[in-house]
Amino acid sequence: MGFLIIFSVFSLFASFASATNVVDFCVADLHYPVTPAGYPCRNVTSLTADDFVFSGLSTPGNISIPFDSAIILANDKTFPALNGLGLSMARADIAVGGSVPLHSHRVSELLLMAEGTIIAGFIGSNNVAYYRTLNKGDIMIFPHTLLHFQVNIGKSPALAFASFNSPSPGFQATTPSLAANDLPSDVVRRITLLDAAQIHKLKRIFGGTN
Ligand SMILES: *[C@@H]1O[C@H](CO)[C@@H](O)[C@H](O)[C@H]1NC(C)=O
Ligand SMILES: *[C@@H]1O[C@H](CO)[C@@H](O)[C@H](O)[C@H]1NC(C)=O
Fold first, then answer.
1. CB 58 near ligand 1, within 6 Å
2. Where are the domains of the chain?
3. Among 55, 58, 62, 71, residue to substitute to test ligand 2 (most atoms within 8 Å of Cβ)
4. pLDDT tens, 192-206?
5. How far is the centre of ligand 2, averaged over its atoms, from the C-alpha of 63 (Å)?
6. pTM of the predicted structure, to 2 decimals
7. In 46, 72, 97, 201, which residue has its Cα 20 to 30 A from 23's Cα atom?
């Protein structure tokens, strides 16, 4: 009888321990498709401290045209330990004269300047442009869903780190979104008032058709 009680208490603690692990974190199992609630969890017994460390933000990305910048994401796909925890990070390297083009996310972004000088800003739904020069150590908040941008106005490469209140913040850049697809040029012209030559130029740059 005494043995049975002790055994039951032990198994109770054992099941509390594993249940606690499951609610504390849920490292994504990328073998399964993502759902609106994130990825399924990897088996806790297969995890090590390495699963909770990501070194991908330690080196710059490859600067790419046409905006002369590089973004590296630490999100639920690249850093699966973020799954279900409601946050992520990114590294932005912006070459001299380059920019992170006008874009938006589903969630808010907090940007921390690490090197260089940029103009950063967002456009409110009241169409007011809130923009300013940022230097090393400055942080700026870009409220969820609003269009925003960063432009390197300094004489050296700029480096910034951003955090987001989602493990999967999404990224939609305005000009590529308009021009990198088969939306007919005439429709683009009528919904933007851009002229035809400009639309053809943008479609050429971003690989769009029609
Ligand atoms: C997790 O892995 C352990 C050890 O391989 C195994 O005993 C256990 O059944 C697994 N749990 C789940 C939920 O798959
Ligand atoms: C940068 O480009 C090199 C050469 O193409 C490639 O090996 C490397 O993985 C790239 N780095 C990133 C962060 O994409």
1. no
2. 17-57+68-166, 171-210
3. 62
4. 999 999 999 999 999
5. 10
6. 0.84
7. 72
Range list of H helices, the chain: 2-24, 174-179, 185-192, 196-206
The response to whether residue 59 sits with its C-beta less than 6 Å from ligand 2 reads no
CATH match of 17-57+68-166 with 2.60.120.10: yes
Q: Sheet holding 109-115: strands in order across?
A: 69-74, 88-94, 158-164, 109-115, 139-142
Give 121's strand partners: 131, 149
Q: What distance in angstroms lies between residue 17's CA and the mean position of ligand 1's atoms?
A: 14
pLDDT tens, residue by residue, 34-77: 988 899 999 999 999 999 999 999 999 999 999 999 999 999 99
- Measuring from atom 10 of ligand 2, which residue has the nearest CA? 62
